Amino acid sequence: MIPESYLPLPALPASPLLLAAEAAILVDPIKAVLVLAAFIPWAWLISSRLEPDARYFHLNYHRWNGIHMAGGAAALIAVLAIPWFWLGLPVALLLLAAPILAYWKIRNKAVPEERRFRFSGGALSAKMEARRAKAAIRDARVTYIGPDRKPLPIPTRDDPRLPIHLLTEQMLEPAVGARANRVELLPVQGGYLISQVVDGVRYKRESVPAETANAAIDYLKSAAGLDVEDRRRRQVGQVRMRSGFGDTALDLAVSGTANGQSLRVDIERSKRVSRPFDQLGLLQPQVEPLAALLDMAGRHGVVLFAAPSGHGLTTTSYSLLSRHDAFTANIKTLERAVELRLDGVDHSAFDASNPAADYSTSLQSILRRDPDIVLVADLKDPGTGKVAAGPGIGGPLLYIAQQCDSAVAQWSEWNKAVGDPRKAAAALKVIMNQRLLRVVCPQCRQGYQPTPEQAKKLGLPAGKQHMLYRAGGKVQEKNKIVECPICNGIGYFGQTAVFEVMPIDDESRRLLAAGDFRGAYAVARRNRMIYLQEAALAKVRDGVTTVEEVARVLNPRVEAAPVPAAAQAS
Fold first, then answer.
1. DSSP structure class, residue 443
2. Which of the two ends of the chain, N or C, has the fewest CB atoms closer than 10 A to its terminal CB?
3. Beta carbons of 378 and 281 less than 8 angstroms apart
4. Direct distance between the N- and C-terminal alpha carbons of the chain, in angstroms, rounded to an integer
5. Are 425 and 337 in contact (CB under 8 A)?
6. Do 289 and 503 meet the contact criterion of CB atoms below 8 Å apart?
7. Which residues, at least 6 apart from 112, have a Cβ–Cβ distance to it below 8 Å?
């Protein structure tokens, strides 16, 4: 017989409601999934977010863990004990959420303002806006950086400005990849034309409707901090473009015309106008007359240097100044716009809006400060030539820039500006004229032997083999002819300058004073002055450029060439 103390205890009667609830949940898989869908996120939130947060801010995480676990147990009991599942589940959710909300409220009182939990329509909108911004960035490849050096937000996908932003990308980013130094958006019949300048040659690109083009111009004006509403006055500004090619500086010039706005974008202009003097392209015999200007005894008089528009006049200006030691010589400039600042040089930009001082008066003010060297940007304003010639051959050294295509045109303009050929001649030391030639691409250039007639014109010795080059534009890769990846199929890569340097000695000065430029020019030639065309052909002999390029530059054509497909690619 089994002792009474070892008999099993009688089973307690189960609550019918609890048994019904358990059976309902265990039998119905959908309800079980809903319960798990409530408890799994709750457990993840407590373990991975709230407990580490309480630890970080020293909020007695042991106590809060207990409160959360108690809330979880109560929720489980509620969902199992309440026979009506659709009542028990909401009660369970409230029991799970109550400790979380309590922690939220107490925590926010104990932590700094910027670290508080927030849930509001504003925060949700901010998150949505951030998502849209990320989507726009995926669509766009370019970010503009304004004058304040802060990136400008890219329009989102639902922003009507996004197509305009993408148009500016299409206009500017491929131009950077094609080594363009300028992009222009100009009104033409029926719309606007995009063109780009690569190594001094303008290439036509696509056309865009007038309304779209003006919207793109206004978009870039806004990015550069210009007045969008003003469509008549000329405005200039700067903006940086961040793309796959890195950060690129863009100088914008917007003008109003009878047909609408026009836009010119210069790409990395400050870098392009900076070139060491020994890389300008002067031949060695042409350097010698300029070498005397470096000595203190020869640092006097006027040097006229000129080029047609777009042929490197600004680069030569700064290059001539950079030869001088700005820390032992007092160097000043008078410019329309300062495009490159040289260390130690006192740059002055002429303010045309100031009625109190015209250009000649500003130059006179500079000369009164006893400078050693002065750069004068032009002779456009009346009286400038007279002021510049005033100190004569014994005054400071003045470099005067001119937009002329020949030495005779330079002398004519200078003589007219001074008003007296004797005074004009007395101040002169050198007259320089230049052109820019494209350098034939070293990767795809094609060599050939010149004919005897060509060799004679080039001054090549007869009876010897000489190699000249012409532009190719294509290379062979794995038995396939493709566009040259270096020059983008153009056949040229970069530019060099060619010069005509006319020294003015006493005999030449006397002839100029008598109004005989032709005689002075003959004297310079007798002293072995190299003509501009001879300097250009010397570059052909040296394999730097081609006969075709010399003919193009010295016999210019106005029309623009169509851009090669590869040159448009980014």
1. T
2. N
3. no
4. 100
5. no
6. yes
7. none
Which of 270, 263, 233, 237 lies closest to 167 in space, CA to CA?
Answer: 263
The strands making up 373-376's β-sheet, listed across from edge to edge, are: 331-334, 373-376, 397-402, 301-306, 428-440, 492-503
Longest dimension (CA), the chain: 153
| CA 48 – CA 87 distance, rounded (Å) | 29
DSSP result, 346-387: B--B--TT-TT--HHHHHHHHHTT--SEEEE----STTHHHH
Residue 225, SS3? coil
The amino acid that residue 375 corresponds to is: L
Q: pLDDT tens per residue, the chain (570 residues)?
A: 444 444 444 444 444 444 445 555 555 678 778 888 888 888 888 888 888 888 877 788 888 889 989 988 888 888 788 878 778 888 888 888 898 888 888 888 887 766 677 655 445 455 545 555 554 555 678 999 999 999 999 888 888 899 999 999 999 999 999 999 999 999 998 899 999 999 999 999 999 999 999 999 999 999 999 999 998 899 999 999 999 899 999 999 999 988 889 999 999 999 999 999 999 999 999 999 999 899 888 899 999 999 999 999 999 999 999 999 999 999 999 999 999 999 999 999 998 878 778 999 999 999 999 999 999 999 999 999 999 999 988 899 999 999 999 999 999 999 999 999 999 999 999 999 999 999 999 999 999 998 888 888 888 877 677 899 999 999 988 888 999 999 999 999 999 999 999 999 999 999 999 999 999 999 999 999 999 999 999 999 999 999 999 999 998 654 444 545 444 443
**Using CA atoms, how far apart are residues 221 and 393, in angstroms rounded to an integer?**
47
State the pTM of this model: 0.72
Query: Are the C-beta atoms of residues 347 and 337 closer than 8 Å to each other?
Result: no
| Cross-strand bridge partners of residue 375 | 333, 399
Label residues 93-126 b or e (16+ Cβ within 10 Å = b).
bebbeebbeebeeebeeeeeeeeeeeeeeeeeee
Residue with tokens 């909108």: 125
The residues, ordered by sequence, that sit 6+ positions from 194 with a Cβ below 8 Å of its Cβ are 171, 183, 184, 185, 205, 206, 207, 208
